[in-house]
Amino acid sequence: MDASQNPGPVETEFETDPSRYRHWEVTYDGDIATVIMRVQPDGGLREGYELKLNSYDLGVDIELADVVRRMRFEHPEVRCVVVTSGTDNVFCAGANIHMLGSSTHAWKVNFCKFTNETRCEIEDAEAFSNQVYVAACNGTTAGGGYELALACREIYLIDDGNSAVSLPEVPLLGVLPGTGGLTRLVDKRKVRRDRADVFSTTAEGIRGKKAVKWNLVDGVFPRSKFDKKIRARAEALAARFKDSLLTGERTGVTLGPLSPSKEPGKRVYKHVTLEWDDATRLATLTVAGPSAEDVAIAQQGAEAIFAAGDQLWALRAMRELDDALLYLRVNLMDVGLVLVRTTGDAARTLAHDKALWAARGHWFVNEVLRHMARALRRMDLTSRSFFALGEAGTAFAGCLLELALASDRFYLLDDPDNVVQVGVGPLNAALPMSHGCTRLDAHLYGEPEKLEEVIGALAEGALYEPEDADDAGLVTVLLDDIDWEDDVRVAIEERVSQSPDALTGMEANLRFPGAENATSKIYARLTAWQNWIFIRPNATGPTGALTLYGRPERPRFNWGRV
Amino acid sequence: MDASQNPGPVETEFETDPSRYRHWEVTYDGDIATVIMRVQPDGGLREGYELKLNSYDLGVDIELADVVRRMRFEHPEVRCVVVTSGTDNVFCAGANIHMLGSSTHAWKVNFCKFTNETRCEIEDAEAFSNQVYVAACNGTTAGGGYELALACREIYLIDDGNSAVSLPEVPLLGVLPGTGGLTRLVDKRKVRRDRADVFSTTAEGIRGKKAVKWNLVDGVFPRSKFDKKIRARAEALAARFKDSLLTGERTGVTLGPLSPSKEPGKRVYKHVTLEWDDATRLATLTVAGPSAEDVAIAQQGAEAIFAAGDQLWALRAMRELDDALLYLRVNLMDVGLVLVRTTGDAARTLAHDKALWAARGHWFVNEVLRHMARALRRMDLTSRSFFALGEAGTAFAGCLLELALASDRFYLLDDPDNVVQVGVGPLNAALPMSHGCTRLDAHLYGEPEKLEEVIGALAEGALYEPEDADDAGLVTVLLDDIDWEDDVRVAIEERVSQSPDALTGMEANLRFPGAENATSKIYARLTAWQNWIFIRPNATGPTGALTLYGRPERPRFNWGRV
Known about the structure:
Two copies of one chain form a homodimer.
Chain A: E1 24-29, E2 32-37, E3 55-56, H1 58-74, E4 80-85, E5 90-92, E6 94-95, H2 97-101, H3 105-129, E7 132-137, E8 140-142, H4 144-150, E9 154-158, E10 165-166, H5 169-173, H6 181-188, H7 193-200, H8 208-213, E11 219-221, H9 223-240, E12 261-263, E13 266-268, E14 272-277, E15 282-288, H10 292-299, H11 302-308, H12 313-331, E16 337-343, H13 346-358, H14 363-380, E17 385-390, H15 401-406, E18 409-413, E19 422-424, H16 439-443, H17 448-458, E20 462-464, H18 466-471, E21 477-479, H19 481-497, H20 500-510, H21 518-534, H22 537-540, H23 545-548
Parallel strand pairs in A: 2-4, 3-6, 4-7, 5-8, 7-9, 8-10, 9-11, 15-16, 16-17, 17-18, 18-21
Antiparallel strand pairs in A: 1-2, 12-13, 13-14, 14-15, 19-20
């Protein structure tokens, strides 16, 4: 099946900017922004499908993610973001079905993961940046369209006797509303589970007062009053979220292009380098720590950090990491293992962390920290094995130690002839995973005394020699220079020889010890079930519902319940 | 693929008793029981594989489930249960790989679900019945064998220079340790996640001091001292768990056979009837509430309830429900929707509940209540749609209301000419779901005021007329007698026409609002990923690792990471 399907363009890039948007328009009016979805039918990322009725593909969502990210950095004055449609009679019809139907399994999975991350970024903006989103559903709101609305704080639907909200995935397509839909229905909006069952199996959806009663939307307004009511609601929310403890002039910081240089098997950014080898299915991700100059700037305080803007090391390096991870996910499908290295100086990285942390009351520094957390979360959710390798000149300290803690294993060299240090600092308590706990919490879940000890050292920061780092519980395998080469080589060879599916499933389970929350339920329970369904013949086989959608034939199901 | 695979025997029955055990021996010595696994290689449930090295299939696990259940009812004096092997040099090699390799996807999924439920019952016995399990791993402990040990409170491994604990599923079979293994490693035993990664990808496993250091086991003992050390540990645990607030003479209650009568399309127990129709893919599950005599017995108090033994309505009805659900799962694969009905009298059911609740301090009543909770949990985890239908003469009250709350929808007739009542009572707060909250909590998750109101009525019990039940938030659809027939018929027809896979995934998401715990992580995150992997060619395709296990060919993987 996969072979005949379109794996996407030769190369997918995730960077964009407003001058290149094809599908979204953003207008600003004081503390209110309006994000207008107007998908160009012929603007698909690939050939072979038309993006009718504001349906979307990855390209549309890459632009939305860019809108959401820039809103925080470039428009910090905005308190309320109204998401609405510029296409007649439809708010959004969800993911394009012909795109899904003609995509490989891997493409579908990666597409859904990215769209899920974007929806979570919308909620993150509300939680940490006082930017709240309102869905102004001025037409049909179906499937992924309603899931986009569900990520907003409030949802208003036009009451025109026709427009409904709906999740028609199960009845029409034989797949799940997998972009958070089922989870947000019952866990976020707390729609009663039996009503959620009725709603999610009713293709035509629900509108009017019943939609309000079931809490599917927060209100319905007739067409004549819709814009005015939305405006009033946006003003009320903007006022409500106006107060902030964060300081600093609310002047935006432009996110310039990253413009990595590209050569075969290599992608070089300013601070990040991604190299890969198709034959060995290995990649190396190298992140350079801050320079002495970077540290000096950060130590001058919030205003100097603000002035550094998008060239601030912590922002630029993490934007590059984010882009490299996204590139890896969809372009380097056969890479199974990523070796993670850091270069620079552990003490310097800690000093930079501490300076950022001291300035965290400034809105821009807050944004930088939140962005770091999101980029690292992208790593937790990337379906590749990661081995962190700490050799001479390593800078696995503070925010860069998070790269080792996000990795499946951390190999550290213990060699008196080389300076190898591991450091912890305040940011190790400030960059939570998607299930809400820090990577230190997750890592030392079973060793509360060690956790307490490390946490006690965070505020001041601490540098550990290799043996001490091992004693602190931070290292998977400590190796002297005699064993290093062979042991690491064998571990790598073993890893890349194992079943990629089994590894993906294993890592998705082992990386998240502790309690789940609604976000991690989306990435675990919901996503795992969707991935299963995506490969079942009842969805994607020759007579599956997704395959046959829009064709005259009715799907033919194997009725066996599994 | 499925067509060429063995779907299991024509009919699988789940009832057994000690006189029929082929694979287990149980000995009793005061408050310590020893459960000895000695799997008969030629005792498989189906032809085509040999159960070598204490590997197991569903038949072996059905016996284990019976051991665990009878231990609580028939041997309430037992405080510590030692699980060990009677087969040389091996504790347990896990699920039989040739059985898995030759099973349909559905059989694998159902097999894993049942084995997971049994492991959870072992933990339930510790939590609620002061019966603690100790794994005495007197030989190789691999895969599902180690997962069985992980369900025990403590794990001891023989230190013979050879025997190791291992989870070789990922490296050898390309599937997950899906019987709770990955979850219990990091969430229960809190093995550090990077160590869990190393352990779960190392086919030969880990033994000796390292196994202790990593908390994979609680201790290792040399062969010469193994039995003595285990005995000492069992005695210490038995002493520690001796005290109990529960009253009553600790004399066992024998669980007699249920012996349903069977005819085509029908299975009739004393209180439960299961009927099905292959053409419409519909089943009806009818549970009869307690009789006036049943209530009179219960109201006489703990000793009378104890004297009723396995004929007590609440025990017998729930054992029958449990058996019917298990029968349905593996024998009626194409049934997509189960209509759930209750007969009897709502007030009588509540009276019976209240009498049980009043006597809950007696060990036997406690066992009955815990058993009810487990049977109902089996329903939450059954991959069939359930519609509860409350018509005239319905007894959806108290513990039987749980059947409606466990259902995906609850249709209730509102007809003044018929007595239709819905009742709540103390047991609605006493029968938690697998993620720890009650079905009322889950049902009214978004309506805390309604929840408070219902909870306030539980102690005394309350009977609601149809409209009041609807106002209380307990009913999905309230219909008068004019609409009932058509509306219910249409709902049924729609449900059975939809993709069974999508419905399974949807229900697995909607049924569990709120927080996850380790148990629900096993059924959600871990199981969903395993189900996905079970259908991926890298596991079960012609060159997949599970398919080729034990053959000379090496598996050939598609290296794409998804």
